[in-house]
Amino acid sequence: MDRGLLPRIDVARCTGCERCVELCPTQALAQVADKAVLLYPDRCTFCTLCEDICPVNAIALPFLIVFAEQQLQ
């Protein structure tokens, strides 16, 4: 798994609301010292739910977009 593509949590912005932790379908996130952390990165499926639900935009999922070569017929 490319760790550069995992969710990034800005702990300075995180308010500790636990929404992402509660809604993560794979339980990859946890609350540590009142902040969200990606405790189990191998469980992450890049679903974007944590990023979408965060009320302060403290979570970002960096995606790599790769364009496939066009097939000539």
Give me some keywords for this one.
73 residues, alpha+beta, two-stranded antiparallel sheet, 2 helices, 14% helix
Walk me through what this model shows.
The chain has 73 residues and is an alpha+beta fold. The protein is 14% helix and 16% strand. It contains 2 helices and 4 strands, in the order E-H-E-E-H-E. The strands form 2 sheets. It has a two-stranded antiparallel sheet with strand order 1-4. Strands 2-3 form a two-stranded antiparallel sheet. Strand 2 and strand 3 form a beta hairpin.
Count the helices. How many?
Answer: 2
**Spatial separation of the terminal alpha carbons:** 34 Å
Strand proportion, as a percent range, falls in: 15-25%
Largest sheet: 2 strands, antiparallel
- The stretches of 5 or more residues where confidence is low (pLDDT under 50) are none
Radius of gyration: 15 Å
* SSE sequence, one letter per element: EHEEHE
Q: Tell me the number of strands.
A: 4
Helix content: 10-25%
Class of secondary structure makeup: alpha+beta
Inertia-based shape: elongated
Give me the side-by-side strand order of the main sheet: 1-4
Quote the average pLDDT: 90
